[in-house]
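Changelog-adjacent note: as of this version, every example in the card shows the full chain rather than a window. The one below runs 115 residues end to end.
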Amino acid sequence: MIKLKRIYLPYSQDDGFRILVERLWPRGIKKSEAHIDLWLRDIAPSNDLRKWFNHEDSKWLEFNKRYYYELSKNNEIETLKDIIKNHDVVTFLYSSRNENHNNAVSLKNYIEKYS
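Full-length structure tokens:
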């Protein structure tokens, strides 16, 4: 099972294996207190795509297309799939305030569609 959670929310043991799926470290979060099992920064959208999207809802569909294309060429996707297979619960951690339109949502949809 893949869960999504904003990194600013409290840690819970129900989160299972916690993966930060952001290219940049979230502001105000201390690494020592983040309870992160793995930081897969290279699974996140490229800097160019991240800046272009800018969390604008009107760009969501196009963002998904572009991000899926990046993921299709990303070697880290196999690492991520292996981790998911080896854990009952995996939580993708993200920093965006937008709970519906962010790279973790897109990544979860990609994994579920192409696994």
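Structural remarks: The beta strands are 2-6, 17-20, 38-39, 90-94.
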